[in-house]
Specification:
The chain is built from seven helices and 14 strands.
Length: about 250
Amino acid sequence: MKCIVLGSGTGIPSPSRNSAGYFLEAGGLNLLVDCGPGTMRRLVRARKGIANLDAVFITHTHPDHVSDLTPIIHALRVGGGGRRKKLTVYGPSGFKDYFDRIVLTQVRLPELFALEALEVEERMTLGSLTVQTFPTVHVEHLNSVGYRFEENGRSVVFSGDCDYSQGLIDGAHRADVLILDCCTLDSDKMEGHLSAGLAGLVAAKAEVKHLIPTHFYPIPAADSEREQECRIQFSGKITLAEDLMVFEV
């Protein structure tokens, strides 16, 4: 499996960090996990584009995680080069209503290819790829989930926005790679998000091999401080996410 970080930032503008988005090549499929504003342009810069997307996985419907979904569908509909391949968009409970009310009121259904929005099941199979979902704790008014992708005994987990919970630890248990919300330093902990120290604690309790902290708020904190706080709890491999960073699982 190969992953490209398209956005390691938040909804607050940053000159170097786009809003949340990740491109995953796995099981012969081209997948997108979240698509905040600017995701399409990041895909172009990563030389991937949108034409060959097979599925999109949304962790929750805050705009910094989903607002490029409508432009992506519109671009595929009007400039998809005769695309015939179906596009499936997955999201947590309540996502289908969001999709119908927000997305389909702005773009017409494509004529050349099938488009389907589905609310995720706990375990799904896409060819040789297994996708597991788990609930996360973020905000009360929205459902949110994390995703675990597994193929040939290897696993990568995307937490989305989340606070500390046992469900998160269980969902990430012994993952090869955990891409984890890490908004702030411990002194600036925000409700519904992990701080650096808590991110390290989750990684340690989940016994993951490689922690990739992400979703950084533009605060005056050096990367070394973020990593240092993660390391108080976690002794494994840590790589701070950067936009357009590529890694393999």
